[in-house]
Design a protein that fits this description.
This protein is α+β, with helices and mostly antiparallel strands. The chain has helices at residues 26-37, 89-94, 123-135, 153-157, and strands spanning 6-8, 11-13, 20-24, 57-62, 68-76, 107-114, 143-149, 162-163, 168-170, 174-182. The chain has a single domain (6-182), classed as Gcn5-related N-acetyltransferase (GNAT) (Aminopeptidase, 3-Layer(aba) Sandwich). Helix content is 19%, strand content 30%. Strands 3, 4, 5, 6, 7, 8, 9 and 10 form an eight-stranded mixed beta sheet that branches. Helix 3 links the parallel strand 6 and strand 7. The protein is globular.
Length: 186
């Protein structure tokens, strides 16, 4: 359900879910990350390498009742293409300029999750837009990348992300594709 226009950190949104986005600790988002991304594995499997690095940012989206409904993490990690996984033909043909960004400073989007009760309400889009607009300035980087689950790839493509690789398997997690986004500068 959409709400009237509202403001998050000075960014004006005409409509969408009424949520509050905060920077939080990894510990605060771990239960949701586990519930959505690693449901049949131990809680520790949702504790990612780099979660406690000082440069890592964890985002939590809360509904009007204060319930955690979505989360995501950004880590400082160069954009690297695994040499064992070929790039897509579209990436090679239509985005050759991105080959020069490989190995450059970037941020990896990781652990993005929306609670199943809140899917298809625009919360993931709002969180992703918030991250893109707020992380380009303080980190002085314009590049984001992620390993997206194959069923989520269209979500990222709809937000301007480019698919870099064909599907590959992350053991005990499932099929993913690597994706890239040059984020907006404000």
């Amino acid at each position: 359900m959409s709400t009237p226009a509202y403001n998050i950190d000075g960014f004006y949104f005409r409509s969408g879910p009424n949520i509050q986005i905060n920077l939080v600790s990894a510990k605060e988002i771990l239960p949701l990350r586990h519930h959505v991304l690693r449901p049949n594995r131990p809680l520790e499997s949702a504790d990612f390498l780099g979660d406690d690095d000082p440069s890592t940012s964890h985002f939590a989206a809360y509904d009007t009742e204060g319930n955690l409904v979505a989360c995501a993490t950004l880590l400082d990690k160069p954009f690297i293409i695994n040499p064992d996984i070929p790039t897509t033909k579209d990436f090679q043909e239509f985005h050759p300029e991105l080959l020069s960004t490989i190995g450059m400073r970037a941020r990896q989007l990781r652990g993005m999750a929306v609670h199943p009760d809140h899917h298809k309400k625009g919360i993931g889009s709002l969180l992703l837009n918030y991250i893109e607009t707020h992380q380009s300035i303080p980190m002085q980087t314009t590049d984001l990348w992620c390993n997206a689950r194959t069923h989520a790839a269209s979500f990222y493509q709809n937000h301007g992300w480019i698919t870099v690789t064909p599907p590959f398997d992350i053991p005990n997690v499932g099929p993913h594709v690597q994706m890239y986004r040059k984020i907006r500068q404000y």
